[in-house]
Amino acid sequence: MKKMILAVVALLAVGGLGAMLFFVMRSYDNNTYNRRLLIHPASITAEAPAIAEYDGMRVALTSRNVTRVMEDVGRKSRDDVYLRPDYVAETAVKITFPDGAEYIVGLDPEDEQRCYILYSYDGSSLYYSTYKLATFDWVRKAVSPDGLYEPNTVLED
Hints:
39% of the residues lie in helices and 25% in strands. By secondary structure, it is an alpha+beta fold.
C-alpha cells in the first residue's frame, strides 16, 4: 500500500512540475513575442521593406502601416493557441520581414469573428487568436495598396 501511495505522490509531483514548467515556458514565449514586435520593424530598410502577400498580390509596406499591423498582432487581449490552427488560407495575409520573421493573419473557417495569428521566426512558431476585435479587417486595410495611413507600394512579380 505504501508503494502505491508513494507512486501516486510521485506521479502528482511530476505532473505538477510539468504543468509549472509549461506555464513558465509559455510566459517566456509571450514575453519574447512582445519584445520581437519591436525588433522586427527595426530590420526594415528602404531596400528591404516588409512584404505583405494576399489575394495574389505582393505589397511593400510603409513604416506607418507596419506600425499599425504590429499593434494589431500584438494585442494584449490575444489568446494562446497551443496547436497550429486551421485558417482560411485563400484570404489570409502573410507578412514577411527582412530579418526572416513571418506573420500569417487568417480567419477561423468556422467563426469569422475569430482571427488567428501564426508567428514564426528563427525556427520557432507561436499561435494566437483574437475574438471580436476585427484584427483581420484592420490588418487587411493596413496592407492594402491604399494602406491605412498612407499608400503602400504594389510590387510586380
